[in-house]
Design goal:
The protein is built from eleven helices and 19 strands. Strand 18 and strand 19 form a beta hairpin. The chain is α+β, with helices and mostly antiparallel strands.
C-alpha cells in the first residue's frame, strides 16, 4: 500500500530531541551492485498520525468571488511508493497506460523541468524500469474547484469535541481535487482547530451537523457508541411531489455504481440498509421530509428517495433525466451502469456543470475507479494516502483496478485539451523551473499570481457554478448519542411556506 513521503514536518519529527539523548540508527549498508544496476534505498520509516500543520495551510490562500470560496492555484508534491503491478515496467509505460489525464508529452516536459523525481533524484529518462520500493515524487500545479462562500458555523466546542454546521458543497476531508476547500483545512486555517478526529461524515453536497473529537480517547469512546448503534441521526430534505403522510420505511439494498463519479443505485446485490421517512409539510408541488437512516450507506437517503419516486428537488445526481422518464423510480433505469454513467456525465457536460459533481474533464479521462475516495465527496481517506494519483497529474484516485487500456502512444486531444500554440516538447526548461516555486509543494506570493506553462487547467476556461447550484436540499439536522445531542437550525428551504 502506498504511503505519503515525509514532508517538512515529518522530517523534523524524525530528528533526535534537542538534548541529543537518542542516537540515530546507523544507515543501512549498501549492497554491492552489479554493473549498471540501479540502487533503490530502503523504505522510509514514517510517523503515523501526523496531522495537517502550518506548512500545509501555507501552501496557498483563499479568495472570495461571486458568492464562491476559491483557492489560488499552487504547486504541490504527490508522492507514492512503487505499486506491485508497476515493478518491471518503465515509468513511461506506467504513465501511458494507467494515467491518461495528461498526454505523454506532458510527462516528458515535466521530467525535463525536474518535476518528476525517483528516490529524490530527477528523472531524466522515462524509460527507466521501476523496482520494488522505488519512491516517486511528482510536482504539479494544482487547481481546486470552487465551493460556496457560506461560512462554517461553530455550533458547540469544549475540551472534547467541536461541532459545526457544514455548508453544502464542502467535502469533509482532502479528497480527489479538493484539499484546501475542505472542512478540515478551513477549520485549521481560519479557526485554529487542528488534529481533529472525524466521528462521522457527510456527503459533499449535504449540509448540517458535523462532529469532530479533539482527542483519540474521545474518538474511541464515541466510535464504540457507533458500533453499539447508540447514535441517532436526523436529516431533513425537500423532495419532488406529494410524499405520503404516513411513515415510510425503505429497506432496499444499495450498490455503488461508480466511486469516481459518486453514483449508487438500488440493487439486490447491494448492501442492506434501512431508512425511515416522515412527511413534515407539502406546499402543493414539493414536500419537506424527515429522514432517519438506521444504517450509513453512501448516498442512502438520496437513493432511497429516488427509488420511492420522490428524489430531492435539486439533487445533481439522482434527479436527472439520465435515469430515464421515471427518474429511477422503483429501480427502473433501462440502462447498463456504463450507459447510465455516460448519460449522467453528458447531461452535466451539456449544462457545463461538471464542477457541481466535483469532477473535471481530466478526471473522466484518467481511467480507473477508487474504492477509497469518490469525487462526490464521500471520502473515507485523505488524498494523502496515495498522493501521486492526484488532481492534475497523474490520475485522481488512490487505486486503479482493471480497466480497458488504450494505445499509450496516442495523445488524445479530446482527453487533454492543449492550446495549439503551445508545444510541450519544446518548452524551455529554465522557464518552467522559474515558475515551479518551492519544490516541496509550496509557493510564494508571486507564484500564486503566475500561470504555469505545463498546466492544462491554466489554459482552460471553465464556467463557475452559481452559489445556487452548490446547494442541495438535504440537511443533517440532529446528531444524538448516549451523552450528547447537537442540533442546527432548520434551513430556509425547509420552512413550510418556502417557495422557489
Amino acid at each position: 500500500m502506498a504511503e505519503p513521503g515525509p514532508g517538512p514536518s515529518r522530517a523534523r519529527e524524525d530528528e533526535p530531541g534537542p538534548a541529543g539523548k537518542e542516537e540515530a540508527a546507523p544507515a543501512p549498508k549498501k549492497r554491492r551492485l552489479a554493473g549498471g544496476e540501479r540502487y533503490v534505498p530502503p523504505p522510509r520509516k514514517l510517523n503515523a498520525g501526523v496531522s495537517f500543520g502550518a506548512e500545509h495551510f501555507a501552501e496557498t490562500s483563499y479568495y472570495f468571488e461571486g458568492g464562491l470560496r476559491k483557492v489560488r492555484p499552487y504547486y504541490f508534491d504527490f508522492r507514492t511508493y512503487c505499486k506491485g503491478r508497476w515493478v518491471g515496467r518503465s515509468l513511461l509505460h506506467v504513465f501511458g497506460t494507467e494515467f491518461r489525464a495528461q498526454p505523454l508529452a506532458y510527462y516528458r516536459a515535466a521530467a525535463r523541468a525536474g518535476r518528476l523525481r525517483l528516490n529524490e533524484e530527477p528523472v531524466r529518462d522515462l524509460d527507466i524500469v521501476l523496482k520494488n520500493n522505488d519512491f516517486l515524487r511528482n510536482t504539479v500545479h494544482r487547481h481546486e474547484p470552487p465551493v460556496t462562500a457560506q461560512p462554517i458555523r461553530i455550533l458547540a466546542e469544549d475540551e472534547e469535541v467541536v461541532v459545526v454546521d457544514k455548508p453544502s458543497s464542502l467535502p469533509v476531508h482532502p479528497c480527489g481535487r479538493f484539499r484546501h476547500n475542505t472542512v478540515i483545512f478551513i477549520l485549521g486555517k481560519e479557526h485554529g482547530l487542528r488534529e481533529l478526529h472525524t466521528l462521522h461524515r457527510l456527503d459533499r453536497m449535504t449540509s448540517g451537523v458535523l462532529m469532530f473529537a479533539k482527542t483519540a480517547a474521545v474518538s474511541k469512546r464515541i466510535d464504540e457508541q457507533v458500533r453499539q448503534r447508540q447514535l441517532e441521526k436526523e436529516y431533513v430534505c425537500r423532495v419532488v411531489g406529494e410524499f405520503p403522510e404516513h411513515e415510510v420505511v425503505c429497506e432496499e439494498p444499495i450498490l455503488v455504481v461508480s466511486y469516481k463519479v459518486g453514483v449508487c443505485r438500488v440493487d439486490p446485490k447491494g448492501k442492506p440498509c434501512q431508512t425511515l421517512f416522515q412527511r413534515l409539510s407539502y406546499n402543493g408541488s414539493t414536500s419537506v421530509v424527515r429522514c432517519l437512516p438506521r444504517t450509513g450507506r453512501t448516498h442512502q437517503i438520496r437513493v432511497h428517495l429516488q427509488f420511492l419516486g420522490h428524489p430531492i428537488v435539486n439533487d445533481p445526481i439522482y434527479n436527472m433525466e439520465a435515469w430515464g422518464p421515471d427518474r429511477g423510480k422503483g429501480g427502473k433505469i433501462g440502462k447498463t451502469d456504463e450507459e447510465l454513467l455516460k448519460a449522467l456525465v453528458e447531461e452535466h457536460r451539456s449544462k457545463q456543470s461538471l464542477e457541481v459533481l466535483g469532477i473535471g474533464e481530466e478526471d473522466l479521462n484518467s481511467g480507473g475507479e477508487s474504492k477509497d475516495c469518490g469525487n462526490s465527496g464521500d471520502c473515507t481517506k485523505s488524498a494523502e494516502t496515495d498522493p501521486i494519483n492526484g488532481s492534475s497529474c497523474p490520475g485522481e484516485n488512490e487505486k486503479n483496478p482493471k480497466r480497458v487500456v488504450k494505445d499509450p502512444e496516442r495523445n488524445d486531444v479530446a482527453a487533454c485539451p492543449l492550446n495549439s500554440d503551445i508545444n510541450l516538447e519544446m518548452l524551455d526548461k529554465d522557464k518552467e523551473l522559474s515558475l515551479c516555486g518551492n519544490q516541496d509543494g509550496q509557493t510564494g506570493e508571486k507564484g500564486w499570481e503566475e500561470k504555469d506553462p505545463l498546466c492544462v487547467e491554466c489554459r482552460t476556461s471553465r464556467r463557475d457554478p452559481s452559489p445556487k447550484e452548490l446547494v442541495m436540499f438535504l440537511h443533517a439536522l440532529r446528531y444524538k448519542g448516549a451523552d450528547f445531542e447537537y442540533c442546527s437550525s432548520m434551513p430556509e428551504w425547509a420552512t413550510e411556506d418556502w417557495e422557489e
